[in-house]
Amino acid sequence: xxxxxxxxxxxxxxxxxxxxxxxxxxxxxxxxxxxxxxxxxxxxxxxxxxxxxxxxxxxxxxxxxxxxxxxxxxxxxxxxxxxxxxxxxxxxxxxxxxxxxxxxxxxxxxxxxxxxxxxxxxxxxxxxxxxxxxxxxxxxxxxxxxxxxxxxxxxxxxxxxxxxxxxxxxxxxxxxxxxxxxxxxxxxxxxxxxxxxxxxxxxxxxxxxxxxxxxxxxxxxxxxxxxxxxxxxxxxxxxxxxxxxxxxxxxxxxxxxxxxxxxxxxxxxxxxxxx
Length: 275
Prior knowledge:
The chain is mainly β. The chain has helices at 151-160, 179-188, 198-201, and strands spanning 16-20, 27-30, 43-46, 50-57, 60-65, 68-73, 77-81, 85-86, 90-93, 102-106, 111-119, 122-127, 130-135, 166-167, 176-177, 206-207, 219-222, 234-240, 243-248, 253-258, 266-271.
């Protein structure tokens, strides 16, 4: 099960994505610039994650996940080329909206090159030099290969596929996870950037102030350390019906949990996806 991510580029050439490959380790160090001396600005990405490739410089690859861009060693990256795709009959719009100017009509079974996938229900494409947007339903190829009415439901369905996987601290897949690694893995598959560790995930995304407004895909952060009651130490994802899924140290497994009976206080509920 793989959600394909793709980069848009001002050159409009056939695009590639990258898969992180890290022989001998699960980690890839990501920098905020192509100068690796700026270690204070680094964070970690993980094996088997997917990124948009924006370019190369000084032995580094400039990559993007969602709206977050960073620099990683190009040796930790495997390029994947996406072929042209066949479309049904469609209009190309000047912007990702039905109210946009129609740039070009595309006959059925025409071949287009995809430039970007994450465009509010549209794909950004190149058809014979014409650049614009077509509705997702017009493209026979589906990049989000997981069911769901929105990215929240897709994220919830993704974590369900990991039920029963082992908990191991510091892991983010593909078969072992800790609590924040499971959250980050699911949203990476949807081209949505999420930082690592529960305490940082607690600080980003839309704050859901009323628990009655919680929806599948929202993350819930908890304070589980009685010696440090203000410290955020755990995170799970709400999946509906009063339940969340988390990589738990109780049994060291990814499992369901009753949200309303969980014995630890909630820090925040956060929404990383857009309704």
